[in-house]
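Sample intake — Lipoprotein
Collected from: Nocardioides koreensis
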Amino acid sequence: MKTGILAATLTLTLATLGACSSAGGDEPTATKASPSASGAASPSGSASPAVRMREDGGQWTNCVPYQRSEGDFLWTGVRLTADADARLVRVAPAQANGVRVVGAWVAEAEHASGAFVPWSKSHEFLRKMDWADRADADGAQLSAGTKYSMVFRLRPMPSRFPAELTDLTIEWEGDGSSGSLTNDTVLQFKRHC
């Protein structure tokens, strides 16, 4: 009798653990999306995020040996895909010590490549996206089925070197859900790398 009870308990425990595990492998590593409690479930029973961070944006650490003549920098390494209509609620780095984000926009970009260059060279990269139709990142409306590039203008503050910007987080709402995405790229500015 005790063996039957133990077997039944083990079976229920394994079934419960299996129901709690994720599908695994389908979500990009840079994506940390969590539907809100009021989010509607998809027909398959699991909620899928309205906005995804595209894997090809890449996560890396970059150190720039800064020279005062370079001024601001362009960073376009974060790409988003909207699977449903959504709105960007907030876009901000988790840490920005010695560097300020002085501009953040979103623009449609089917095939834009990522860039991290002095702002004076930004025109070479901005022409690869619908830059004329850009929107401020905070509050931007995203359309379902569209790919976007995030564009940041970064201003290093040499008096506070070494400077670092990490974990850019994008909060979104849409399709009855909300969530956040984090890009774990590290951008460093130093006098010498």
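Post-analysis note: The longest strand covers residues 177-190.
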